[in-house]
Design brief:
The complex is a heterodimer of chains A (222) and B (624).
Chain A lengths: L1 H15 L16 E10 L9 E12 H9 L13 E10 L9 E7 L2 H19 L6 H10 L1 E13 L4 E12 L10 E8 L5 E6 L9 E5 L1
Chain B lengths: L1 H21 L10 H24 L5 H15 L4 H14 L10 H4 L6 H16 L1 H13 L16 H13 L4 H11 L7 H12 L1 H12 L5 H12 L3 E5 L5 E5 L9 H4 L1 H16 L8 H24 L4 H15 L23 H18 L3 H14 L5 H8 L5 H21 L3 H7 L6 H16 L9 H22 L6 H14 L4 H15 L36 H6 L6 H8 L5 H18 L1 H8 L1
Antiparallel strand pairs in B: 1-2
Helix pairs in contact in B: 1-2, 2-3, 2-28, 3-4, 3-6, 3-28, 4-6, 6-7, 6-8, 8-9, 8-10, 9-10, 9-11, 10-11, 10-12, 12-14, 12-15, 14-15, 15-16, 17-18, 18-19, 19-20, 20-21, 20-22, 22-23, 22-24, 23-24, 24-25, 25-27, 27-28
The chains are: A alpha+beta (222), B mainly alpha (624).
Chain lengths: 222, 624
């Protein structure tokens, strides 16, 4: 949980300083879907028939204000039982035959409903305005805008059975994904990758699109 | 063989010298065959220790090397004090070369103790035992060092590496020298009040109340933080308990089982309890601050946690401070959680709606029904599996049928098999502990996972072999039970032959060796050989690790804690204990087959140590 909170904070703080990277001409793109690619890079029992992985996720959305309030009153937690924000989508899948690379990858295309699209469009508009009137970027104005930012909250668990290790392993993927970080990419792409090591530990990372000037990778180990 | 012949020659020459010396005495000492054999074995044991200490300086694993040299010095001090002192001094300097090993991620939040500090304490203990001057020299070097603030501190770590060493040593000195323990613990206060101080205070009180009071007063005069106040609160009001918050603000608790049932010190020291509450009020409950930074927020959380533990004590020992303390805490709580409503959440669970006079059984039934229902209703498939695991784990070990039935709802073959096997394993060990051996035996074949089944079989075999006290048993019955035990242990050896080498497998085999050796030395030696072969397949193995194999559920870190672990001893020491008196040479020879030099060295030292322990009286008699 300590690691998750650290990751949470890193992303959140990065979001604060990233508005100026979104260009005006890109800000009008209407986002109808979000795309999440999950990749299991490797596992010791990849070639064994019984090895498999299962993903169950819930995507939610929360404003910067909601996150800030939750932080102040002690509700800011990545505990799946105390989920924050509004529901966007929920699903799960299982993949077997992990010797095939395509079975170690999953691309989730998540349709966004009108309400969510509206929220994201509003944020794009605010971003565009802030870029056209940079002199209004006072600390108060920035603080106000920060409260209006939209953040995807990913609550996901991956359950892996490694037949070589004869072990069930849970890899939690609970991330906060600030919309501003990938707003100018159609489809709101982001990737989650992880691997299982010989000793049964896991390493995971969240990668934002490489095209952004300040794209970043957060890696955590079990 | 050559070595043995050489040792025999040495013995003969020493015996002949001894014979010449004693020739003048009126009754020359004639050694029995057994005594001659023991003296030969002693020479071999000494040689094993000396060889290891000589090689250890060249080992890559410096931690094991330092420990081996300390053990060697301790074992041979009476034989050769000069050499032992040199080993100890060399080991002391080698500690700087030790690199810290990676700690268990889950435990790091609680404890993250330094390997170096543990090694310093080990060497100091040996030095104090044999050469107080050398110990003082080491200690001076330690206390003159600048305190190194520990990085990545766990919630229950001591303040600095220096305080950790001093308190560790104080604990070791308590039994024989309470004054020294007091002095060491007091020196640790230079770095603040550390977690281990509570243990020292409580143990010291049992030896010397005045010294404990002096140490407490000295600590109280330095109190400045909520975590320090928690340590002293545990000592005064709830012995063995220390509360803290983790990085995400959750409450964590450390319990020292050996001290948790002692009467509260405050009852016999009301003035000290009052002084403590007054000091806490002045240092923490009356100084206004805003929880506006992460540091201050954490401090506020810790203050509120402390208040939860000690507020009631103000009523008893310092009632005039209660109202201002309550006002301060309410204000702090509002600042920390401005949006939190203080209304208790409504719950329609069976557990929360139980009447106050509900029986234990009713409470248990409600808890399990709630957990099972929660799992039934869960829509996230992975969360659902985890919820069923939680419900199954919460069943009582003897209620394994219920646990099995809940586990049967897990829609994942591997996971279901793991949980069912664990529930049956836990039940078997429970029945062994309750001496319901036949019920335990009936469950054995149902445990599919081979290591769990093997540990359960070893536990049953041990129970069958235990002498029957208090009731008359026919010899035929004893023979029959012995036969059943023998058969179970044979199964274990056969079942584990083709298993992949793992830490748990080696520990299980050590357990099998320990039990087998009690009634069949040949079987014990054979299992020991099998174990050595498995150790040679591992990258690393610590022969001093005697902990039980961890056979909990993969997805539940706490499941192991719900098992009635059999008291067998799953370490090398337990495995060879019954063999050392009758088969010392064979054990020594098997130890030489350990491939890694560090493991082999530790094996030699542990074998020698056990030999000296087992033959202590005879060796003392022979040296007179």
């Amino acid at each position: 949980m300590k690691i998750l909170c650290a990751a949470f904070l890193s992303i959140l703080l990065f979001a604060v300083g990233s508005f100026s990277q979104v260009k005006k001409e890109e800000s009008n793109a209407a986002l109808k879907t979000a795309t999440i690619k999950i990749t299991l890079l490797d596992l010791p029992g990849a070639n064994l028939e019984k090895s498999k992985w299962e993903v169950a996720y819930e995507l939610r959305i929360a404003s910067g204000k909601e996150l800030s309030d939750a932080s102040i009153d002690g509700r800011l937690s990545l505990d799946a039982e105390k989920k924050l924000g509004e529901f966007v989508a929920k699903s799960s899948f299982v993949k077997n035959v992990l010797s095939k690379k395509e079975n170690r990858e999953a691309v989730l295309t998540i349709p966004l409903d009108k309400k969510v699209q509206e929220k994201l469009a509003n944020e794009l508009e605010i971003l565009a305005k802030s870029n056209t009137a940079p002199n209004k970027n006072t600390s108060e104005a920035l603080s106000e805008r920060r409260m209006k930012t939209q953040n995807f909250l990913m609550y996901a668990n991956v359950l892996v059975y490694d037949a070589k290790l004869k072990k069930n392993i849970i890899v939690p993927f609970n991330w906060v994904l600030p919309f501003a970080r990938f707003a100018h990419f159609p489809g709101a792409n982001f990737q989650m990758t992880f691997e299982i090591k010989e000793n049964g530990e896991y390493a995971r990372s969240m990668v934002l699109p490489e095209k952004t000037k300040s794209s970043f990778t957060i890696t955590t180990k079990q | 063989m050559k070595k043995l012949a050489f040792l025999a020659l040495l013995l003969i020459s020493s015996l002949s010298v001894s014979a010449q010396k004693t020739a003048l005495k009126p009754t020359p000492k004639v050694l029995t065959e057994k005594e001659q054999k023991i003296l030969l074995q002693k020479l071999q044991a000494i040689s094993m220790v000396m060889k290891t200490a000589g090689e250890a300086t060249f080992w890559e694993d410096k931690k094991t090397a330092v420990e081996a040299m300390a053990d060697a010095a301790d074992l041979l001090w009476d034989e050769n004090a000069n050499q032992s002192s040199k080993w100890l001094t060399k080991a002391w300097t080698m500690i700087d070369e030790v690199s810290e090993t990676k700690k268990d991620e889950k435990m790091r939040e609680f404890f993250n103790r330094s390997d170096k500090s543990g090694l310093h304490a080990t060497l100091l203990k040996v030095a104090y035992k044999h050469d107080a001057q050398l110990a003082e020299k080491f200690l001076k070097q330690l206390t003159e060092k600048e305190p190194d603030e520990k990085k990545d501190k766990g919630a229950f770590d001591d303040k600095t590496a220096r305080s950790e060493q001093l308190l560790n040593l104080a604990l070791q000195a308590l039994e024989t020298s309470p004054g020294l323990a007091f002095s060491l613990a007091e020196r640790s206060l230079a770095d603040g009040i550390s977690f281990s101080l509570q243990n020292v205070l409580t143990s010291l009180r049992q030896k010397d109340v005045n010294l404990a009071n002096r140490l407490f007063d000295s600590a109280l005069s330095r109190l400045s933080t909520p975590d320090e106040a928690q340590i002293l609160a545990g000592y005064l009001f709830k012995s063995g308990f220390t509360f803290a918050t983790n990085s995400s603000g959750g409450i964590i608790l450390s319990v020292n089982p050996g001290q948790q049932n002692l009467p509260a010190v405050a009852q016999s020291e009301p003035v000290r309890a009052r002084n403590y509450l007054s000091a806490v009020y002045q240092a923490l409950f009356s100084r206004q601050f805003l929880p506006d930074t992460p540091e201050n927020k954490r401090k506020a959380e810790n203050i509120l946690l402390l208040a939860g533990q000690i507020l009631d004590q103000y009523n008893l020992y310092a009632p005039e401070l209660l109202p201002p303390t309550k006002t301060f805490l309410l204000q702090l709580q509002t600042q920390l959680y401005p949006n939190r409503q203080n209304q208790p959440a409504k719950s329609d669970s069976r557990l929360s709606n139980l009447p106050k006079d509900a029986t234990k059984e009713e409470t248990y039934e409600a808890l399990i029904a709630d957990l099972e229902e929660k799992a039934d209703k869960e829509t996230d498939p992975i969360a659902k599996k985890l919820a069923y695991i939680r419900a199954a784990l919460n069943t009582k070990p003897e209620d394994y049928k219920r646990g099995k039935s809940i586990a049967g709802k897990i829609e994942d073959e591997n996971l279901q098999e793991d949980v069912v096997s664990f529930v049956l394993y836990r039940a078997t060990l429970h029945f062994v502990q309750k001496k319901e051996i036949e019920t335990a035996e009936e469950l054995l074949p149902q445990i599919k996972e081979s290591l769990r089944r093997s540990v359960a079989k070893i536990a049953v075999a041990q129970a069958l072999l235990q002498p029957k006290t208090g009731k008359k048993v026919e010899q035929s019955q004893i023979d029959f039970e012995k036969q059943r035990a023998f058969s179970l242990l044979n199964d274990v050896q056969r079942d584990l032959r083709n298993e992949d080498a793992t830490l748990n497998l080696v520990k299980t085999l050590f357990g099998a060796t320990a039990v087998s050796s009690k009634f069949d030395k040949a079987q014990g030696l054979s299992t020991l050989e099998q174990t050595v072969q498995m150790i040679n397949k591992l990258d690393k193995f610590n022969l001093k690790d005697a902990s039980a194999p961890k056979l909990g559920i993969d997805l539940s870190a706490t499941s192991s804690a719900t098992v009635a672990t059999p008291r067998i001893g799953f370490g090398f020491g337990s495995a060879i204990e019954m063999l050392i008196e009758t088969d010392f040479e064979q054990v020594a020879s098997i130890v030489e087959r350990l491939a890694a030099k560090e493991t082999r060295g530790v094996g030699r030292i542990e074998t020698a140590r056990l030999f000296f322990q087992k033959n202590k009286n005879l060796l003392a008699k022979l040296s007179q």
